[in-house]
Amino acid sequence: MSARRPLPRWADIIVLPAVNLAMAFLISGLVVLMIGENPLRAVQIILYGAFGYGDGVGYTLYYATNFVFAGLAFAIAAHAGLFNIGGNGQAYVAGLGAIVVALALDQTHWLIAMPAAMVAAAICGGVWGLIPGYLQAKRGSHVVITTIMFNFIAAALMVYMVNRVLKPTTTMAPESATIATMGRVPQLRQFIPYFGYSPVNLTIVVAIALLVLTYILIWHTKLGYQLRTLGQNPVASQYAGMSNSRLIMIAMTLSGACAGMIAINEVLGVQNRLVLDFVADAGFVGIAVALIGRNHPIGIGLAAILFGALYQGGQELQFVMPSVTREMIEVIQALIILFTGAMEGLFRPALERGFALLSVEQRAEAMARSTVDSES
Amino acid sequence: MTHMGDTNPQRPNSAAALPEDRSVWAIELEKINKRFGAVHANKDIDLRVRRGTIHGIVGENGAGKSTLMSILYGFYTADSGTIRVNGVAHAITDSRHALALGIGMVHQHFMLVDNMTVLENVVLGAEGSQLLNKTFARARSQLVELGREYGLDVDPDALIENISVGQQQRVEILKALFRGADTLILDEPTGVLTPAEADHLFRVLETLRAEGKTVILITHKLREIMAITDSVSVMRNGELIETLQTSATSPEHLAELMVGRRVLLRVEKGPASPGEIVLDVENLSVVDRLGVQRVKDVSFSVRAGEIVGIAGVAGNGQSELLEAVTGIADPRSGVVRIKGNALDIKGDDGAARARRAGMAHVPEDRHRMGLVMTFEEWENSILGYETYSEYGKGQLLDIAAARAEAQKRIEMFDIRPNNIRLKTANFSGGNQQKIVLAREMDRQLDVLVVGQPTRGVDIGAIEFIHSQIIKMRDAGKAVLLVSVELDEIRSLSDRILVMFDGRIVAEADPETASESELGMMMAGAYEKTETAR
Fold first, then answer.
1. Vertex A350: Cα angle to A348 and A352 (nearest 5)
2. Is B133 exposed, middle or buried (0-12, 13-18, 19+ CB in 10 A)?
């Protein structure tokens, strides 16, 4: 029986995810090789597509914006020990609040329309998270189950809302009316021509702000302390007199509200109207982002850019290498999720053994040195 | 801490007296080494156990006693060293191998299947053949025989879940004997027993010795060592410090060897000067999740400057009583008052209101309840008090203030290592307990509720913890103490309440009540007859 010593913090945050990613890329490379393409060239195309030119960078950042919101949503709940799989549904329902307010404030400047729509989206997404939270806190229904079900309910609800309520009588397409130019969230290309025609918009500032705010919430507020206590040891939080049921509901509400910001990026920033399935599974990608980012805002920011790059670079790859299909790109993404999420601990024992060996040797050395010192 | 450092000239190498004759030793361990990563758990251990004796092994938590016994029992393999059983060297590979060599072990936590009968448990793993009838018949007659021989009477057809903890332990011993054990290792066997059950166990061990069996007793209770063992080995920091004849030593000397410095075993406390009633509990009843009534209409009060101890065998409602009084679990009925004001302890934030009203609580189980093991030390130093204005006015947590306070406490309570940024799980049991004590004691409070203050805590820390509790009493706080350690209750309390089956069945004066009297009360002998549910 070999001893298990925990990894140093920096290794846990940097080395382990890096090893996992490397493994995922290695196997992805083998897959590309198997279909007869050059994996190194594929990597080159992905990198160029994601970071090589202005449009590519813009798209990467646009995708990353969604993933930051989704990743933070998952992380906030995860810190409280809750596995919120409902980010997708929460973002979807938040679109309802965003579009209703945006259309109500039609012909209003975006400086007013955007914050108002953010509040509405946060409320809708928050409520969609709060309900499973309430059911967990007061009825003991597990959030994993209820949030999955709420994703389906959200999908059905939104189809109904778009087709029966929001769709103008003049169009056939299942989408809402369009927001007037004045109320749309400004595109970054308006200020920075470098971004070309890419849809990255000011919502990215909200994403960055939320990364900072989440960091403050989790590690610098009393509420964050309570959420972490609940997540790490619910018996201790009960002992401390924190109301566990209240905290569960707060965490799920904040989580849902955070996921709801995806609606701002999509509805007010890109589509300018509510279309069916605008979330495009970003909520699920957020789970992977949070897992790779270890629920830490810095990690989530980096992981969101990684996934943004994979999305954007992957599309470029499909274009340049037609034999690498869209499904292949999904396989690569799935491998990353598999290695960083599901099999996250695969290399941990080996790494721990390696680090234990290192530290034993260092200690032995230090001891040898000190005995020599004391004898001399 | 080098290997050469422990060539202690005083170590009695008893083999020197009988260099050639190996036959008197049941077990010989030579130069056993075991490392776990950077931790050197066993350093060059030499231990010989004479056949037909009871050999005690004492040492603080983490001294390496359990590791050593696990090596002997085949759970771990030693990095180096030799194990001889009856003079023959063996490389013991697993516990089956150990059993085949006649080494049996009774673990601290029993390894029994609750919903099987005594007979089935004894046979389990030693069935012998596919058809069980013969094995059962043979086992049954053997059980009866063993039971008669050693005073280990248990009904072979009783279900494990229906017999007492003491009887379950007998089943564990029977299991080992049934498998032909000549050497029996017992790991902290009396922790779960009433004094009467412990006495019975000791009689059993004496019978085993008389029959020529060898017993190795791991314990931290020096009283037991003195009462029953023939020889005793003291371990500290992974080293075997000394092996002594029990008759030639004293508890004080053993404690000193264990800790490495002089230890006060006796609690020094002056007479109490009780004042007004501070904590008043009236007709408290608690029903658990399964609908079983755990606390039955309990009433008592604690005065300022007084320690009231609740004695009882574990599982008689003390835990539930503590949780209800401190607002963690909702009572079904009853009132808790502090200085005459009824507490609103209902709801899942009841504990916060109890705390605000001046009740500090050192919980029974620091791992499960009192600490968040993954938190840094300073974070646990504010647990339960995080909303207080000392740690930031609005919603923001004043981390600097919390850390400064934690730093002050870590010095005041001599918590080691002196590092508030260290993860709590990396502190030893005693230091973890000190983290909880420091957090709960170092503030304005009227009532201190303490559960099992020294469970799993080293002798050196016990002394400190006891003196802190008495200091709180002398500062005029009302102290409610719950412990399953009768010694602790007797030495600390000014008044003893005995709890049995959810009721307070007796009140005793620690000055006059004898241990056997208290033991009888704890076993329910004095229970009032109104046991209608």
1. 65
2. exposed
Per-residue confidence (pLDDT) for residue B4, from 0 to 100: 41
Picking from A221, A244, A360, the nearest residue to B348 by CB comes out as A244
Q: β-pairing, B183-187 with B103-106?
A: parallel
Least confident of A12-16, B145-149, B241-245: A12-16
- Chain A hits for B348, Cβ within 8 Å: 238, 243-246
Structural domains of chain A, with CATH: 1-37+323-370 (no CATH), 56-318 (1.10.3470)
**Superfamily for B277-522?**
P-loop containing nucleotide triphosphate hydrolases (3.40.50.300)
Q: How far apart are CA B316 and CA B293, in angstroms?
A: 11
ipTM for the whole complex = 0.83
Residue B27 above 50 pLDDT?
Answer: yes
Q: Does B76 touch chain A (CB under 8 A)?
A: yes
CA distance A220 to chain B (A): 5
- Indicate the pTM of the whole model: 0.79
Q: What is the pLDDT of residue A139?
A: 93
CATH superfamily of B3-259: P-loop containing nucleotide triphosphate hydrolases (3.40.50.300)
A241 and B368 within 8 Å at the Cβ level: the answer is no
Q: Is B349's CB within 8 Å of A246's CB?
A: yes
pLDDT tier at B12 (50, 70, 90 boundaries)? very low
Rounded to whole angstroms, the Cα distance separating B248 from B228 reads 14
- DSSP letter assigned to residue B389: G
